[in-house]
Design brief:
Blueprint lengths: L1 H25 L3 E5 L2 E5 L1 H8 L9 E4 L2 E4 L2 H21 L3 H14 L9 H10 L2
Helix pairs in contact: 1-2, 1-3, 3-5
The chain binds zinc ion.
The site of zinc ion (ZN) has 4 residues, from helix 3 and helix 5.
Amino acid sequence: MKRALGYLWAAPASAIGFVFALLALVCGARWRVTRGALECAGGELGQIVNALPRPFAFVAITLGHVILGVSAEVLDEMRDHEHVHVRQYERWGVALLPAYALASLWQIARGRAPYTHNRFEREARERSGG
Ligand SMILES: [Zn+2]
C-alpha cells in the first residue's frame, strides 16, 4: 500500500520523465524496468546531453520513477544513487522539482556548489555509499 501511494504521489514527476523517456526511445535509447523504476539509457539524446557545457551536462537524472542515463554502464554505476532520488520523489512528489531548485539556489547564495552541496544530492551520496 505504501509503495502504491509512492507511485501515485510521484506520478506527476514520473509523467514528465516518461515524456523524456519516449523522446529518448525515438532517438535510439533502450528501456528496462529495474527495482520498480523505468530506466532509459543511451541513444543520441544521451550523447547530446552528455556533450552539453557545464553546468547543463549530466550523466543521469531521475524524474519520479523514471531514470534517464547517457548509457547502460552509467546507470549500472549510478543505480543506488538514482534510487535514493526515486525515494525522495515518493516522499516529496512533484514538489521535489522546485524544492531541489531552491536547495541549489540556497547553496549558490551561500557561495557553495549548487550540485555538490544540494541537500538532496548529499542524501543520495550518503545513502548510496558515494
Ligand atoms: Zn543525484
